[in-house]
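User: These chains co-purify. Model them together.
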Amino acid sequence: MLKGAMAETVQLGSITETTDPRILRSRQMLMESLFRLLTRKEFDDISIQEIADEATLNRATFYLHYPDKNALLQAMTATRFRDLIARRGLSFTDCDGALRAIALGVCDYLAETTGCPGQLAKMPLEGSIIAAVEDIFLQGAAHHAIVPGTDPKLLATTAAWAIFGAARRWYQTPDRIPAEEMAAKIEAMVKPIFLTASM
Amino acid sequence: MLKGAMAETVQLGSITETTDPRILRSRQMLMESLFRLLTRKEFDDISIQEIADEATLNRATFYLHYPDKNALLQAMTATRFRDLIARRGLSFTDCDGALRAIALGVCDYLAETTGCPGQLAKMPLEGSIIAAVEDIFLQGAAHHAIVPGTDPKLLATTAAWAIFGAARRWYQTPDRIPAEEMAAKIEAMVKPIFLTASM
DNA sequence: CAAATAAATCGACAAATGTCGTTTAAGCAT
DNA sequence: ATGCTTAAACGACATTTGTCGATTTATTTG
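Assistant: Joint model of the four components:
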């Protein structure tokens, strides 16, 4: 898979900020197209041609922005999840109960976006959601006194994976408890990770 | 993607045990083929035809057992990781330091199996390794006094994701600390999850 | 405004994917 | 040993994928 120039910018890793309205517009339309199609069909049954058609873009244009379907799903998920968090004004700067609020955000996102719980297994959302949660933690870490021997990145990663894993299990459970209740449980489990001393 | 009969048994979820030597043989050969090919090429660059050829099986036979390449990778990873753990005789029944040993197992598995750290990002190993770790925890839970309000499954899932996430970060880090050292860190972070009271 | 830059379109291509119906042969039960 | 069951092989098919080169069109810069 030779990855091509891909419109100058890269999706994962360090992003060369783009202002070009054409690029922004194309990517946005692709993400919205996929989202719309997902309400009707399963991810696996959606072809890149369909996504391009729905976005009124040429198929080749798709490949100019994303290497494959998964990358688009990834990008879409990251964007939508970040928006959800942003709408709720979570930044971990207002540190109180932020952990619970983030957990709740993940639960809600899974519940409102993913159609069928069984389908979740196939979708590679992990990367995007986990990365977003990780980022929030890291932002928060900047506002805290840094415990000497501790690696904030490792803590953020570990906590993010723990939260996502727990939320995922919750969502896949047949008869779920309320999201709020689950968020409280997650908070209780994950909080101690951050209190890890002597590392 | 109509999933077809798939040789009577299913990969994920409840597995209808098979004794038929033909089935066992085919699956084993496919897993070994993929492993061998992975030492030479990247996962993305391996076609199903190649896997089938390497296994001296027909391509159609592949689809009799796995819906796609990812499912095979998943199965292969689960099998190999379980073997690694089994070779080390880890069962969490010998509870002391088992958590650290499992963390070490995950680190070692990633390091010895995955070729390039950057490639890891694309591979959906999560499901398989995490599921295996989860199982080990659940086995262990059976040997412990069950704390009333606690859900062992949730704890197992959360801890498993935390461990995998941490190990994954470690493996992707350019200049890694020794695996043993990392395992100790992971143990320190994850242990408190199991001590969560009042859930 | 005009020229340079770069994104989007178009058509085409070889390759890979996923699925079928049919045939061959291995495993299993009586 | 005989026959039933079912896995594996085979060949074929329509579709999707990923990539190209060439062209058109939109944006930015000077």
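Confidence is low (pLDDT under 50) at residues 1-5 of chain B.
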